[in-house]
Amino acid sequence: MTDRIDTETAALLLAAHDDYRVLRRIGPPIKWGLPKNVRASRKGLYVDVETTGLDLDTDEIIEVALLPFEYDPHTGQILHVHEDLALDEFRDPGIPIPPETSQIHGITDDLVKGKCVDEEALIRLVADADLMIAHNAAFDRPMLERVWQCFEHKAWACSFADIDWRAEGFGAGKLDYVLMQQGWFFDSHRAKADCLAGVFLLGLTLPHSNEHAMRALLESARKQQFSIRAIGAPFEMKDNLRKRGYRWDPGDPTREKAWWTIIEDAQVELKWLQENIYERDIQLPIKPVQPNDRFSKRIF
Predict the structure, then answer these.
(1) What is the mean pLDDT of residues 12-25?
(2) What would the DSSP string read from start to end of 47-103?
(3) What separation in angstroms does the CA of 8 have from each of 12, 15, 66, 133, 168?
(4) Where are the domains of the chain?
(5) What is the pLDDT, as a whole number, of residue 1?
(6) Rounded distance between C-alpha atoms, residue 255 and residue 60, angstroms
(7) I need a labelling partner for 34 at 20 to 30 A (CA). Which of 15, 226, 242, 279 fits?
(8) Number of continuous H segments (helices) and E segments (strands) in the chain
(9) 21-221 belongs to which CATH class?
(10) Spatial separation of the C-alpha atoms in residues 109 and 114, rounded to whole Å
């Protein structure tokens, strides 16, 4: 009996026991069991960045990865993953990387010193994609658009926000957590590894709806959405707004500071705000979100 058989036998024995759960490493796409000789009609590009911090205005990208893949736009089935065409490169941010940030992703000043991204390759991959996807696109998209304008003109979706993970029985939507709950793990917090894990996740079947995660994402991304700004909301209501999913926007010379969120039914949300936040009738800024502006700062 070989070591591989011994390991697999042990894993099966543990998985069958009520006191144990077994996690399997996500392997390369060639081992994912993707269909062969199937013609795809849509091209996706999964993207991820590692940065010097979490401030969308002042922090910088230090690693970017782009992973092209193909999918069926009707079923959401992942058909091909072009790992050989992926881009994964460091970028010198021109500022020191905080030690606490390096502890998370392991990227140091020495690794990025003098490094730059192949912009021609990046622009070519972006231009060829029908849909951009990130896990927390509300962070990745604004960061990318600050550096490369080509991202501004693409349709975006989010494997974190466009899938109702709680309705599927998960306590949170973080990439590593959702995968672990389904029996998988990967080496997280590096851009290409996160991209591979993200596409792998989109190919899994959701536990409650029994549909491909990618199909659920596409259905959500196709819905009309609206942005609403709770301007002048009472300070003591901030926790209620945060629990509702609102984010704080400090504003700029062109717009007032306010709590804001994205919703599908503007009138239902306005009614909730009137009854639970303002306790009076009030008119608030509501505007439709254009498909190419999803998760960008233009939705403000």
Answers:
(1) 85
(2) EEEEES-S-TTT--EEEEEEEEEEE-TTT--EEEE-GGG-EEEE---SSPPPHHHHH
(3) 6, 10, 33, 34, 29
(4) 21-221, 225-299
(5) 46
(6) 24
(7) 15
(8) 10, 12
(9) alpha beta
(10) 10
Over residues 78-93, the mean pLDDT reads 96
Sequence-ordered list of residues with C-beta below 8 angstroms from that of 166, at least 6 positions apart, any chain = 173
**Listed range (7-21, 28-42, 64-78, 166-180) with the worst mean pLDDT:** 7-21
Strands 286-289 vs 247-249: parallel, antiparallel or unpaired? unpaired
Cα–Cα distance for residue pair 194/64, rounded to 1 Å: 11
The pairing of beta strand 247-249 with beta strand 258-263: antiparallel
- Looking at residue 5, its pLDDT comes to 62
232 three-state secondary structure: coil
Chain segment 213-248, per-residue pLDDT in tens: 999 999 999 999 999 999 999 999 999 999 998 999
84 or 298, greater pLDDT: 84
| Long-range contacts of 279-288, Cβ-Cβ distance < 8 Å, separation of 24 or more | 284/228, 284/229, 284/230, 284/231, 285/228, 285/229, 285/231, 286/226, 286/227, 286/228, 287/226, 287/227, 288/224, 288/225, 288/226
Token pair recorded at residue 100: 């606490």
pLDDT the model gives residue 66: 98
Per-residue HEC secondary structure of 155-205 comes to: CEEECCCCCCCCCCCCCCCCHHHHHHHCCEECCCCCHHHHHHHHHHHHCCE
141 close to 161: Cβ distance less than 8 angstroms: no
Give the helix/strand (H/E) hosting 37. none
Question: 31 — phi, psi (to 5°)?
Answer: -100, 5
Token pair 């392997």 in the structure block, residue: 27
